[in-house]
Task: structure prediction
Amino acid sequence: MQQNKDKSQPKVGVLALQGAFIEHVHALRDLGVVAKEVRLPEDLTGLDGLIIPGGESTAIGKLMVRWDLIEPVKEMAAEGKAIWGTCAGMILLANDIGGLNQPLLGLMDIKVKRNAFGSQLDSFEADLDVPAFEKELTHQESTQDHPFRAVFIRAPLIEKVGPQAEELARISGVKETGPDFSEDERRQDTIVAARQANLLATAFHPELTPDRRFHQLFLKMAGDPR
Amino acid sequence: MLYLIQQEAGAVQEELYLMAQVVNGVEKSTWKTKVGLAQMLKGGVIMDVVTADQAKIAEEAGAVAVMALERVPADIRKQGGVARMSDPELVSKIKESVSIPVMAKARIGHIVEAQVLEALGIDYIDESEVLTPADDQFHIDKHQFKIPFVCGCRNLGEALRRIGEGAAMIRTKGEAGTGNVVEAVRHQRAVQGEIRRIQGMPVEELMTVAKELGAPYDLVLQIHETGKLPVVNFAAGGVATPADAALMMLLGSEGVFVGSGIFKSGDPFKRAKAIVQAVTHYQNPKIIAEVSKNLGEPMVGINISDIPEEQVLSKRGW
Result:
């Protein structure tokens, strides 16, 4: 609580229209940051960063339209503020979701496939290697050189990372057991995290596990000097 | 904590058995993914639908999931007879018509109905008192399934028994099909009140509380330590208006099921949308006032005292 009074700390909001927003608020609290819950455009004032949580992307998108949040969040992105979408949030950030008709922010140069692994029965956990942690987090934060345990729930995947964006993590072997994949697809790795300047997207849920490295990475993008 | 570890170990073991090959530590259908889906539904509305068209309307209105049924509770109540799992064909059609998660109900203790629903590849099973119980003593051992379950409760003891059996999500029972929220309020207040009581107790009193509640001791201990249920807790049973839904959120529910309340009302799409907005903005009375305007006729309500004793659904469950 006290630490947040420090002006050098970024002010971060979590979109709280629907979904697992309180888990992100708690994760940020673990790192000494008091996050603001965002439900209306005025809640965005003064923020350095915004997390769009997991939930149902159709429901969150419709609520963003209903409460006039699409344009203000786009403006935030244009001003260089950090925005991170997890799962449903990643879908909302993508500029291509294969032609599905639902509201999007469309900010990131990535092609995303919804419910890419199947139904809830195909939800899974897996270990990820994230090279960016080693390079960008300070020694103390990245001493955990173990893989990142990621939870995928009816998760999307990134089919294509466009030239403006960069891949952060991929996973192999998951499609072995999925229902609807061709032989070619099964052999390919799957991209599950990407970044584009001030924008971050993860297909999985770092807010559901105690490992805080993705939240640290995001806080750095939002201007955290630590 | 020990309890959770045991549950995870159980899920891991099951998974190793089901998967010949484990790559990158991939584990499917873990306890975390089961509870996790319910976490993603929080702050949202799950709507009862009886056709694919209704499912599309629900999705368009902003539902986070649909409950696929042959009859909504109000009709089950009116028509009487034995209420069973829905026709798998109907469930599959509804599943194909939407991108949001699909749930369906199995009768209490009906292991095979649950297996059938799992085989359809839907996302959640409601082992529900709204259907006629298949077993008058025992519920399903939900740990044996890859698909997650939600179960109803009237109080904390019942909630913890269901979680002990493997329910990854809990809802109040309320009194389904009445359009009367009083029972859901009673059940949510009971759960929250008992949690507060246990939190404030010295540890040596917890075993006796576990005995009184008929709840697993490990889970009572966990409630004492964390002050909350280890799974997501929704409201259900009798929610008919945006204000009803917001009331349930205010009392500590993390989301709302609406059964008969939507498609038994005058303008289902408008009412569904309004309930979605009210759940998001449950702390904002101005917005609730705004979205509650001109919704048309709500479903006709029933007073609980007018329901014959044997037709009270919330008494089903052991």
In short: The longest strand of chain B covers residues 102-107.
